[in-house]
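Quick one - first record:
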Amino acid sequence: MDNNYSTLQYNSKARWLSYWYQISETLQRNPSSVLIIGKGSSIVENTISTIAPDIKIVTLDINRKLLPDVAGDIKALPFKDSSFDCILCCQVLEHIPFEAIKDTLKDFSRITKNSVVIFEPHKRKYLKIEIDAPMIGKKSLIMKYPFKKKSIKSRQHFWEINRGVSYREVKRVIKKYFIVEKTFLNEINCNHRFFILKKMRLK
């Protein structure tokens, strides 16, 4: 495994909450089979296998050193139609040009039977207010910075939400192939955006 994925710096507190959401949202889909695109630290894969050992998990990554079940490119997924109940794809799509994700999402729709869980970086300034009080409980308010940045400075990412493309643009492309059941932010790191998608059934 690449050293970057096995460090505590990479697996930060905020990232652990994102792992929790990836695991929770995937299990809530009640799948019998899951395709995990982007093997990373293997924490999500291993935890799902422990909690729900009957779920068939297949991992795909372009990096052979991570020892995925399938070494391959997200732009050319080598799977048959309706191969998996759920696809989990986290922090991967930003590694290909935004113009290419339309075809990738179309391929997701072809491969999944039911649902897709996506997690992408959503970069912007924000103000977060948290309240934990009797009768009210724990509440969180996130004030979003409304303007996108025109360019992105990254050696690895072609785009991020609000850096290169807007949140609205990302949702518009997703809605061509999926119903957005919900979308939300990691409340510890508000730069982590989740999209929970349901396959669009053709009439």
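second record:
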Amino acid sequence: MGNIPCQWLSTNKIQLTRLVIQITTADMKSPNWLKGYIESLDIQPMGRYRSDCPVCGKPNTFSVTDDGLQRLWYCFHADCNVSGRTGVTLSRQHASRVFSGLQADTPVPRTSNTYEVPNTFVSLSRNLDAELYVRSVHAYDAYIAGRADIRYDFRTGRVVYLVKHEGKVVDAVGRSINGKGAKWYRYGNSTCPFISSNGKRVACVVEDAASACSISNLVTGVALLGTNLLDGHNEYLSNYQKIFVALDKDATDKALDMVKILCRKVPTRLMVLDRDLKNMTNEERDELIRSHIDR
């Protein structure tokens, strides 16, 4: 090789070292074995996992999130940044159930007091349009505060409000955001109302789940999911100290009938609406609710 200056050797050694580091870092982005390792972790759907990074070994820097469809992972250490996703993998049975009737709204089989939540119900954050809709009807605060369990059904393109009774999911109601099918769809056949509760003993009866969420910062929102008062609704509402009935303006006659029925057990008054509660501003809605509570 002859006499090669030491400075040239030193410079090229540094460049070679940098090249090796770059190649190694690139390989760390997606080691072949990592996907299998992620899939083997015991994480529940919609759950999260945090541990030491299996690639770089740095403590408590590795995060895995299961969004109900796939798992996403990332290392937060500056010298690693390994990341990726498993991709959506559907079994034949799952795929058949999800995609065999994309245009049809088919209720999922249920028992008398429970509802099997379909695996097509995923986190609201999985779809930007779904999240924007929930924000537009002023239900997002209830979702964030845990007063409502709201999901996105990617099979039917609906924002889904889970109906619960004594902490168990017994039904679900979905609002179409893609313009397909009926605007509202009831997945099960329970008689339970949708409840968005703040723990207070004052209830406000409304028609839809979004309206119930929008008022739950001040009162417990009780959505009939329609304009009919069922026996199951009566039984539930009898536990409150005071009730307001706030149906849409075109259902005022039905609202008055409900007041007559409910006031036999609980003090009940009519709340007359000029506009849908979920379409009011926060200030308008809060002022209306407070003006009735304080009377």
